[in-house]
Design brief:
The chain is α/β, with parallel strands linked by helices and 168 residues long. The radius of gyration is 16 Å and the shape is flat. It is built from six helices and four strands. Strands 2-1-3-4 form a four-stranded parallel beta sheet, sandwiched between helices.
Length: 168
């Protein structure tokens, strides 16, 4: 039996989702490994949902939004970038490969770019192999550590700090 990665993509409505729609309408071919969830802004991604997605067996999570400076919500994508950097660092400490989490900037006109990103991420996950949390026998150590990460990113105090800038 061959392995086909399962990717969950959280896409910004204004740019990345429009690019995915353009790829489909233009009949641009890309691997059928991604399931898309539309968000109004990549800045609305909840790290708890990302961790839950990995715990539930996704091989990879793609967050895609507008290029910096093009966000319809001004700094939403920059807030997402901060959250994802922190989350990748925490995930790396669990023993799960942080490469299973990916952040990309894709413009609304980027149907070809969207297809390339999905293809590249699929190939990256193929080289990593199946998630140790997928299937009938998940790695209990990683599962327990991810539960700690989930509790950490759910803490209201951390949520207050992440994505906020200090003024001089």
């Amino acid at each position: 039996m061959s392995y086909e990665p399962k990717i969950v993509g959280f896409l910004c409505n204004w740019c990345a989702y429009s690019a995915a729609d353009l790829a489909g309408m233009s009949r641009i071919s890309y691997p059928p490994t991604i399931r898309i969830v539309r968000l109004m802004c990549s800045g609305r991604i909840d790290p708890v949902i990302v961790v839950d997605t990995l715990i539930n067996g996704a091989d990879g999570v793609l967050i895609a939004g507008c290029f910096p400076g093009d966000c319809h919500y001004v700094e939403g994508n920059l807030n997402a970038e901060v959250r994802i950097k922190i989350l990748k660092n925490l995930i790396a400490k669990t023993g799960l490969e942080p490469e299973r989490l990916r952040l990309e900037w894709i413009p609304a006109s980027g149907g070809v770019l969207f297809a390339e990103v999905v293809e590249d991420f699929t190939n990256q996950l193929l080289s990593l192999g199946p998630s140790p949390l997928a299937g009938g026998n998940p790695d209990k150590n990683i599962m327990e550590l991810l539960a700690v990460v989930r509790d950490t990113v759910a803490d209201v105090r951390l949520r207050e700090l992440v994505g906020k800038k200090r003024t001089p």
